[in-house]
Please model this.
Amino acid sequence: MTAPKLAFFLGDLGRRAPYLFSILLILSCGGPEVPVDLPEAVEWRFDEPQPDWKVATPQPFPPNTSARGVLVGGVHVEVPAWDPMDWAHAVAQVRSQTPGNLQLSFNVSEPGEEPLGQTANPFEERGVQVRLVGDNTVQTYRISTEPRAWAEKPIEQLGLWIDGVSEPTTVEILSVSLVPKTVSAAAARKCAELKSLTADDLPNPTTVITFAHLDAAHPEREGDWVALPEHCRIQGKINERMGEDGLPYAINFRMRLPTDWNGRFFFEGTGGGNGRLTDALGATGNGPSGLYDGPAPPFNNALSLGYAVVNEDGGWDRRLRQISEIDLQAHRDHKFNSVDEVTKASKALIRAYYGKMPEKSYLWGGSEGGEQGMAASQRYPTHFDGIVAMAPPILRVWMGVRSAWNVQTFAEVARAEGLFDEFGSPLLPKTFTDDDFVLVSNAVLEVCDTLDGLADGIVDNFPACTNDLVGSRLAGIICTGPKEPDCLTAPQVTALLKVHTGARNSRGELLFPDPPWDAGIGGKAGDRYFTQWRNTKIGPYNQTRNQIAPSMMAQLLALDFDTDPRELMAPFYRYPPTDSLFWELTTTNSTDLSAFKERGSKLIIIQGVSDPYVSWADIVDWWEAVDSVNDGTASDFVRLFAVLGGSHILGNDRATDRFDALSAIVDWVENGIPPDKIIGTAGPRSPWPNRTRPLCPWPQQARYKGSGSIEVAENFDCVDVVRN
Model:
């Protein structure tokens, strides 16, 4: 039998317009399920009939998709329960008349589902694409089988996806081989045994281990994943239940236990509202212990450094409901209980797998993950030896009030300019252009950059960068006529000054601390604008409607700041502020860290000064209060580091915001060396690529020594500064 010829052709589709057609050939074989030991190499050849293959139903792409193609056929058959991490790579022999793309694909459809479903391409495309040579000769292609996502489901079908062909052609698949990885048989058996743990083996008897598989080591993949060691990958759930809303809930977790363990446990906090599992690699997002940072090469992560790593979803599933709709228990799980339950379960699994408890335990998280770190230090002080909390929203209720203040302030600009959306609401995104914020950032630098004695594009002495200073400069660029690119309108300047005075009532009394001025409010490097501050406060300029829903916009615009601030946010929460649960769910700002301190645990907080979500003012006021409670000794166990120009989770690029906080907390916990500085590096898209600076523990600031390059951190000291 001759090899299958996969014909690509152009068709009409009833629209009298050419479309590219694509073919998915699904390859499969029968056989027993894969044992604990990895399977032997598998090869399919296509010079013999395959009587158990089934014809797949053709499925068209929607006409408006970028794929511009139609799946016109293929064959499939059920396969054993394989895990894609078992395979090192695939080898395919292919002859093609025309250049195109070849990619290995997997399907993990639930049992009973149609293999091709009702969508154009139900296969989860996981391999790296290779480019087909189109000279009609037989070519051998090695294709990665490393998954882009981590599914705790067996593969149901295996396929080859072919696309990117620009003209009618024929592609012949001559053979396909899968080459297995090698792993430790003993570790594989030990990992598989974790699924048999009973309620007596785990702290919470509702804990169920749903998946346990030993993943082989795999190398770094350029621009994608870092190298990962051999490790036991686990998924489980705690407190599975039906909620008050009739929907299922559970605290789900994913864990990775490296065969070569360093004796440490790493809890990976999750931001963005949680409600989902991450890859649980122990990504810290910055420096050598981060996962992946834009166009730069990928970094290491906690798993690759030998840590046992866990991540959890906060006890709710964002695919089923909005966070505002979850029930009471889910609110508690989301805010703090899941950290407790998953930490206890993780340590029990570590003991079962390695035969001993972790020597040291760490939590790292940003945004809501940072909030989890703050909750852990206050509620569960014995769980962790060290915590790194980046941009933690410790006063969620006040963040809402500050948001209302900002909305009302920028709405005044929109009304002055006659800017309204289709619902009649003031159109905030159009109140400032990106170039307007470049003017604002430049104005801040003109009056505040040299307050530290050095003109370097960074406002080190930001506490001295006051409204009076910046306001005087902004007054000098107010348009004297119509709005021009090099000036701001009077309403724009008034709004900016009002936002930076902090939310106030009609008597001028400050309700919440005013945020600092910083150059990270805007700016530009090359043709790239720094927009996180404006995008958060008012929305991207190209939006034609507000990013806040009309009903919510109306509520924010109607808030009366003469109302008791404790009542201001009541309409936006399910529980009234008279209920202690309201504060339990919206604050992590307790200053009682006595148990955490007495245990000898350490806490590092890192906060961007230009963060539009979490105000530096909230964090520094909390630290000062903790310092006061501890008679001026807070720095013995908790240190706060400011990232100048840094935005939320430090994604602004106008800062030296790449750093290794993991090594800093480990050195403090295990070697007793407190971090007197953390070296930060500017990214490639910053105004000063690869510049290094010390991030200093508050209240110290960085100062130039007076000689040497200002691009190198060693020429700066962290010094005490007299504060007014």
Residues 1-38, 53-77, 110-125, 287-299 have pLDDT under 50 and may be disordered. The longest helix spans residues 328-354. The radius of gyration is 29 Å.
